[in-house]
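Take a record.
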Amino acid sequence: MQQQNKQAQPARAVGTPFDEIGQGFGWFEYMRANYPVSRDENGGWNIFRYDDVYQVINDPVTFSSEDVPNFSHNAFLRETIVALDPPVHRRLRYLANQGFTKAAITRIANNAIPLAQTLFDQMREKKEVEIVSEFTFPLTTRAIAVMLEVPEQDWPLVVHWVRGTDKDTPPRSREEASIEQNRMGQQVYDYFKDKLTELRRQPHEGLLSDLIAADVNGDRLTDDEILKFCVLLVVAGQETVQNLLNNALYCFTRFPATLDHLMRHHEAIPSALEEVLRYLPPFWISVRRTTVDTVVRGQHIPAKAIVQAWNASANRDPEYFPDPNRFDILREPNRHLTFGYGIHFCVGAPVARLESRMICQMLFQQFKSIERVSNDPIPMGPGPLYHVESMRLRFEPRG
């Protein structure tokens, strides 16, 4: 099942309307062909081709995740596994993996089923739904709350943390945003500090209890390490699944033939979601800092340089993805780099994949048609986690 995406003029995609996001991919295409490794006006290095992006994200010795401005200093990422290098990263990853065994992943994904069903029942009555505020946001915030063993009476706190601010208007400066992020991060940390004390006395079946019990040759996670992991999951875990579901519904309704196919062939859902991850990834870029002078595609990059590896561009590299601007839900192979590669491959990727597959299957089982209410441009939020801000869809329930 293939659909052709319209061509766009080369331009950097930052804060553009979502229906114009093809400009970003036009820019990627231009840069891959002409300046695959290039230095920007801020002194950072940008990497666009698949092989080169792979080189950057798969070599933590040369391309460090530590001490990266606006990344490893972020209140929600600081001193977590995404912003650390070996050997500290390796130790934390081995221990954290015990919270994401196959059985644990299935349990976490299954917990989302009744949450989704409650929202589907409401959608059945409404017929027309603003998909972000009425479905994907409440679903994923509640799912992350259940995963972290937060009782239902405290779910509004998770909504508050995910939104990231107490204010009605967004921060007006980077400094103000940093202060707000630090304050929110501390709120999450303090809440789960009390939760850990409770769970150590009386463990439950859940991720936090699994992390408390994690043991590798007598080595265990400290409370501080678990708490920082909680802070990371509240933001990154929720937003990744929300954006994957939003992007999937965007793509499926933009290319109705693919939606018709999926309605009849649920076995194609896993492949379709992988194509969504490639075609319109929820996270576009991986940022690193060079530890030594190095060379990428013949370009000399000095030590301590900031390197921006564009995963979204690598996912459209024609050397790896024939006819890359087609949305092809049966694409094979599909070795996209959306979840990274190597030691920093997303620890929550199996949960995001399984949860999204289950929810899409439920959706297609319970509704016989899904379509956009209007053809107006769909607003897109700026930032490294590109996301649908709002999208109204019409749902026709099955009998």
